[in-house]
Amino acid sequence: MSRDPTFFPFVEFELVSRSIAASPIEACGLVLAPPCAVWPDDASTYRASQTRNASPSPMRAFWIDPLEWIAQEDAAQTIGLAVHGFWHSHPRGSFRPSIADLQMRERLGDGAPDWLFAIVGRDDCGAWQLAVHENENLRRHGRRALLG
Ligand SMILES: [Zn+2]
Q: Which of 46, 78, 88, 130 could hold 10 in an S-S bridge, CB 3.0 to 4.6 Å?
């Protein structure tokens, strides 16, 4: 294997597929890219990983185990990628950030100024979609940002 199977392209198809496979549990993982990459200009360089959902209530919330986060971040660094955010799914909800998501963002504060908060959710018709929330639009409750 020449490619590290831990990371896959950060595109809607990949994240939706994993979210459906994990349902009814929330799927989650990291968003990775070269350190200087800018979203969405450098979208093609973005990758994602999937982690275990370590939440005690994984059907309603997600939690990335810090040790798993660090292990994946270390592996990413060896191929020139840095953490640019994280993603998770709402198997029974929309791709807009929940109250808990906004509170988590608040707690992270300036430690994650440019991070993406990608959410796979379902629209009014039940179709799975990915929304990429950047900091400045997170508070506007998630206009869906389409991937290139
Ligand atoms: Zn959420």
A: 46
